[in-house]
Amino acid sequence: MATTAELFEEPFVADEYIERLVWRTPGGGSRGGPEAFDPKRLLEEFVNHIQELQIMDERIQRKVEKLEQQCQKEAKEFAKKVQELQKSNQVAFQHFQELDEHISYVATKVCHLGDQLEGVNTPRQRAVEAQKLMKYFNEFLDGELKSDVFTNSEKIKEAADIIQKLHLIAQELPFDRFSEVKSKIASKYHDLECQLIQEFTSAQRRGEISRMREVAAVLLHFKGYSHCVDVYIKQCQEGAYLRNDIFEDAAILCQRVNKQVGDIFSNPETVLAKLIQNVFEIKLQTFVKDQLEECRKSDAEQYLKNLYDLYTRTTNLSSKLMEFNLGTDKQTFLSKLIKSIFISYLENYIEVETGYLKSRSAMILQRYYDSKNHQKRSIGTGGIQDLKEKIRQRTNLPLGPSIDTHGETFLSQEVVVNLLQETKQAFERCHRLSDPSDLPRNAFRIFTILVEFLCIEHIDYALETGLAGIPSSDSRNANLYFLDVVQQANTIFHLFDKQFNDHLMPLISSSPKLSECLQKKKEIIEQMETKLDNGIDRTLNCMIGQMKHILTAEQKKTDFKPEDENNVLIQYTNACVKVCAYVRKQVEKIKNSMDGKNVDTVLMELGVRFHRLIYEHLQQYSYSCGGGMLAICDVAEYRKCAKDFKIPLVLQLFDTLHALCNLLVVAPDNLKQVCSGEQLANLDKNILHSFVQLRADYRSARLARHFS
């Protein structure tokens, strides 16, 4: 059995167990081993081993049953023991509850006894204290202070406590009987108060925070406590303003005091608030007054700059002080301090602002016109001017004599930038210095000044002058400067609109003034656009007039009906060359003067008028075969010029015109085929007929028969 037990190894694997058993059995090896394989012997060994295993299994099973019985027995004993412990625990818990109730009962008795003792002791203490006070009162009554507490300077704290109580008692005594003693007590009260304040002052100069705290605690019950605070505030500021920046000095002072005031006074937030009030009402107010009063009447620009700077620095200081504990409503407290300093300056701020802005804007404009040696002419206002404007809009006629501006637009970006810069600064000051309820109204007043001087006095005047400078459509060699006015006006409009959105909108966005400003801006822009449209239209008429003059002067009848048909060497006429050169120059000028969709709109209008001019011009001549070819070459050149417009409609018109010119040279037999082509099929028959009639051979019977 021992051998059998040795064959078991952990972990148990059946195959390995059999291998080990075979290996131990004689004759159980392979045939080629040292001992021959003996199956009978191996079988006998297996049978014996199985019997041993069965015996081992029975033995182990008996041992397991014995252990299970033992375990069940111990479990019952353990359960019984747990039940006994639970009973013991319940008994202990009951004893604990009884003990707790007993302790509570004893504590109640002790508290009741303590209350009784205190009820007896408190009157006794009061009686003892009253006796002492009566003793001290008798000394004042006798006129001789003998007690050590009054004669020993080191006991000033105890003396202060006594005299403070005697002073309160004396207040209740009738004056006629105790006037003398009341006077003595008051005198001693005053002397001690002065000694304590002097002691506090000395301790502050020595930097003894603990002594300052002790004295301040004693003085807290005296009337002179506020004087102690005043002394502290005064000494804190000694040597505090050594820099050139009083605001930075004030901030540093308050930060320093904030760190130590809590270690000295029982109400540090009140003391710190009083210090800040003292700084604002004395130091800052005096400084602000000195800075503003000297330039208030003499220099409005410097006054406004100083006011804005001082108010900004004061509010920044206030923001820093918001970090400190100043009581419940420190925001209102600091706002009142700022208002007390600047109220006399802010009441009429907007009047000074608008007055300065008007005078400054007028000076900027006048300085510009003086630099141009230009005397502004009166444009006129009222009914007559309005009537002229309506007539000009409806008839597109120049009203009044044409003015030669010598190429001057009377628009200056430098002037505009200066005006916008002044207005931007005014908006910034308005935002900072205006009361929130007045801010939209004040901003609107500044905006109206900008409109008056920038839009009316400068841009509108330049437009009116530019309109007056546009020559009539039949003028020769006219210089067209109005497009330069358009270009500069567009740039100025963008700058004006940017300032409107960036600086005015934030000030009025949540007020009824927003709609009023938007309406005023819309009216101004519409008024300007009407004049720009009118000027552009008249300028286009002048361009067409110039082209017409070139064609009239340069185009000859013999160009399209030469005497020698076989000797036509030119590719296109001189008139075509000059017109195309002029048109290209004007197209480039229009592209440079405008932006966005405005370029396409104006170029399309010019292109349509250009096409109409060429169409009507070609209708004035009779064409031979060679002249017709030359006309086609001219129109091809016009069409090439029209491509520069980059407007599909204009190119389509010239394509059609080019196709119409083919009718001047096509063989009579092919006329109907050409007229039914893609480009001419949709045209009115009268238009086709009018071009065929321009042929020199139109009256021949053959041509008339083919086109009838």
TrEMBL record:
Any coiled-coil regions, as ranges: 50-88
Organism: Mustela putorius furo
GO CC terms in record: exocyst
All residue ranges annotated as the Exocyst complex component Sec10 N-terminal domain in the record: 39-147
Annotated Exocyst complex component Sec10-like alpha-helical bundle domain residues: 158-707
UniProt keyword terms in alphabetical order: Coiled coil, Exocytosis, Transport
Protein name per its UniProtKB record: Exocyst complex component 5
InterPro entries in the cross-refs: Sec10-like, Sec10_HB, Sec10_N
Annotated family: Belongs to the SEC10 family.
Biological processes, Gene Ontology terms: epithelial cell apoptotic process; establishment of planar polarity; exocytosis; Golgi to plasma membrane transport; homeostasis of number of cells within a tissue; non-motile cilium assembly; protein localization to plasma membrane
Molecular function GO terms recorded: small GTPase binding
Pfam families reported in the protein's UniProt record: Sec10_HB, Sec10_N
